[in-house]
Known about the structure:
This protein is of the alpha/beta class. Helices cover 46% and strands 13% of the residues.
Amino acid sequence: MIDGSYANVLITGGTSGIGAGLAARFLEVGANVLVTGRNQGKLAAMAKRHPGLLTFESDIGRPEDREALANHALNVLPGLNIVINNAGIQRRIALSEDTAPWSERQAEINMLLAGPVHLNALLIPALLDSGQAGAIVNVTSGGAYIPQPFAPVYSACKAALHSYTVTLRHSLRNTPIHVIELIPPAVATGLAGPGNNHGATVDDFCNTVFPQLLRQDLVEVGYGITASDQFEAAKKPYKEMFASFSNRFPTAAYASR
């Protein structure tokens, strides 16, 4: 169990929705929290609501911003031990109707997939050097397991992030860094824009999952359908196959320092 009162937490995409909800709960238990966002006005409003909150303007979809964020986070949170990769966008459009320029589609991929993979790579050495118990939380989606035809690129990126998270956990198994996949179902975050605000409330979701993120015996945290016995049973064969496959083809892993 990680002691939240001593935690130093980085949350990407922390000005609204799940990111803001988790930031508030970490602050309530006494953690030091740094949130990122692309809108300085929203960051300022978030800081005004939560005295003591640290903010940093950053576009997780841009590699240079990720590098600047990693440097800043390690400077203002030298004891950083929890990283929550939450920043996201969702384009709702059928593949057959998507005529947007490639740059728009690439931006979605960059934020949802390249962002977490790159940021983790930048921060893991420092997390290991600290020698303390920590966690990397990658926020995926029920759409990682059951593709959403109305958000095809989003679903594909979340599926890839799920796959990466499984391997990251395996790679960090001999260290004090715990890797958790947070799997929201539909949550009313406004992620998909105006008119697409359905699902569980942010408060209900965050109240349920927050204490589970501090545990070190859980590798996946869901809610509602993504926490159901049916959902877990569907994943079980794939977990068993991964365990068998990874034992058959061993790879180098991170080591504690």
